[in-house]
Amino acid sequence: MSETLYGSIAQMVLDAINAGSYREGERIPSIRSLSTRLGVSVNTVKEAYSLLESRRHIEGRPQSGFFVRRTALPLPRATSHIAESLDPTKMSICRIMGPFQEKKENPGFVLSLANIDPDLMPEKQLTAHLVEQTRIAGARALEYQFLPGDRELREQIARLGVDAGIVSGPDEVLITNGCTEAFHLALQAVSRPGDLIAMESPSYMNFGFLAQEMGLRVLEIPGDPQDGINIDILRFALKHHDIRALILVSNYSNPLGGTIPEDRKKELVELLEEHGVPLIEDDVYGDTCFGYRRPGTCKAYDRTGNVIYCSSFSKSLAAGWRIGWVLGGRYREKILHLKSLFNLATSSVTQKALAAFLREESYEKHLRRLRAVLAQQMFGLQEVVARSFPEGTRTSRPQGGLALWVEMPAGTNSIALYHRAMAAGIGFTPGPAFSLSGKFENFIRLCAGFWNADIANAVAKLGALAAEREVRRDAAS
Hints:
Blueprint: H1 5-18, H2 31-38, H3 42-54, E1 58-61, E2 65-68, H4 123-137, H5 151-160, E3 173-177, H6 178-190, E4 196-201, H7 205-213, E5 217-224, E6 228-229, H8 231-240, E7 243-249, H9 262-275, E8 279-282, E9 307-312, E10 323-327, H10 332-342, H11 348-359, H12 362-388, E11 394-395, E12 403-407, H13 414-423, E13 429-430, E14 443-447, H14 453-466
């Protein structure tokens, strides 16, 4: 929020709310009193309060002033972890509860999808560039675009990295088929079957599934919905286990929505370097912040090439184009070799079209619009959950990304709720899907990439289902 004076004031007020200076339902300073206190114009404070009100942090009441909204639920509690639970031999395979499907006749299914409504993307511009680049390339559009990828696209990506604190040249960028391939290549480059890797818990389900398919053992390190991975527990684990790599989503993690604070990112990078453990950083959600400035990255603090940075445009621009990239650091040559063994190349014409789109500086304009809409959709989702779910429900408070982590009252069985919801045309992801050890039974993940009145009604219906006796574990005893 801090790109303008009113944005800085809005951020200051929001920081005070988050710190507890103003509790839910309490009145915040009047426009005139805050303008006098800060020495700014009344209109500047009005703009700041208008921004906070549009993002559902405060609400104006006629003749009364502005108040902190009451709709926010408490944060989910961190699960307890003791030293014994860090033993990788005690990990079990995550239960899979069935396919997640998008059915157009049931809009509630999109709540399970960590994707963004394609209607929010600059489809006409992207299509125009695709057509133009196909015309320019002619028959060459049908050829391989060999490694490491289109030169201009790599240059554009290197420039975008500056906003994330990353200083790299285009020669360090390797284009991949989405972030998933980038992550897969990185994990193969730093591990062998039987190795032990660590990951945040709960974590994106494909991380654990892929590690298991590769014959790796997984050590789960607890994460926090506000600050991401618990570095203190990681430090303990590094002392007591032979960990070969750490994998995590540094910004707006999936499903927690947490972001590692900047000072902790630096601490994390230094800790891993000290122990000789590479970090595979997935930053696919970094550009989907709800403010004007995206957060930094762990890679920004990497001075030795120990951080492998993976990202893509799948969550911010064109998921179907499958354009991702990896900065391999000291593992670059190994990753390049592995990519050449798997598929040699990534689609040529889409690389050129995306490079042309980035060249005309359309991406930043698109992001400004997208971020505002995603913020509104996430706040709308939080509001409906707060109104509709059983008393005692808690939710995360992400400042970006798509995932809302919901903790329902103890005894709620998210697996039973999942089956009842699917039968009613509503999708979500149960908490146990995000852990190889079967934890988070009373948690669910909802996604805010799509939003309309029908989806809001589906969330309300889901809240009603969550209160039913049939989804309570204690009801079956």
